[in-house]
Write a structure and sequence with these properties.
6 helices, single chain, alpha/beta
């Protein structure tokens, strides 16, 4: 028994890592566009190696920015796994004709208090709704949880993907998952507890950023957001 689980329960722990920040989008919405990310801040990735579990199953989306993020974690000293599954269902929401539009202007046009690009059931023109994303993410999570029961799963994904996973963990409430901030490179852990009589989720942590806990580094290593320009690192 661990982490508050009941006797007889099997716990499958999901460790979600959002990909590193994208700098080459020109301030535009990129959604499911397959563009690269900035993995230059080795301190950030070194901090991640200290909190992620060894001997885990690794999964990433089908988009290259998640693969680059995983490679940066391994290059920072984390033991490289024998394999990493590339799961298309974990790709970011396809935002259709909104992809390539100026992000700041688009978000400014939304009603006050909006958490996402549109209401969860409204699809982007030529793309998906958040519910489309939620349903495919949940299907893959449930399948992998059955296949990897009792193990640690490190999943490198996207902001929308991780918000969908949180919505599942909150009892199947996708709109509640949208209320959480998920910063680049942050860690979110969601634990699935299964026994003959119950199948449920616990939420031990959301959006943990281990690189900001060391006072020795006076510069805030905060990679979140495409508008943030990474400062020159201290010697």
């Amino acid at each position: 028994m661990s982490n508050g689980s009941k006797p007889g329960a099997v716990v499958t722990r999901w460790w979600w890592v959002r990909h590193a920040p994208v700098r080459s989008d020109g301030g535009n919405i990129y959604g499911q566009s397959d563009i690269g990310c900035d993995t230059g801040d080795r301190y950030v990735f070194g901090a991640l190696t200290k909190v992620l579990p060894r001997n885990a199953v690794w999964v990433a989306s089908s988009l290259q920015r998640t693969h680059q993020t995983a490679e940066a974690i391994w290059d920072a000293g984390f033991p490289r796994p024998a394999a990493m599954v590339k799961e298309a269902a974990f790709a970011e929401q396809h935002l259709g004709q909104w992809q390539g539009m100026n992000r700041k202007a688009f978000l400014a046009s939304l009603p006050a208090g909006s958490h996402w690009f549109a209401d969860i059931a409204v699809p982007a023109p030529g793309g998906e709704s958040f519910m489309d994303l939620y349903n495919r993410v949940c299907g893959a999570i449930e399948r992998i949880t059955r296949e990897q029961t009792g193990r640690d799963v490190i999943a490198v994904g996207h902001g929308g993907t991780i918000k969908a996973a949180i919505g599942l963990a909150l009892g199947g409430q996708p709109e509640k998952g949208l209320a959480f901030d998920i910063d680049n490179c942050s860690v979110t852990r969601l634990d699935h507890h299964a026994s003959p009589s119950v199948s449920t989720w616990r939420v031990p942590m959301v959006n943990q950023q281990p690189w900001i806990t060391d006072d020795a580094h006076k510069a805030m290593h905060q990679p979140a957001g495409p508008e943030v320009v990474r400062e020159t690192k201290l010697a």
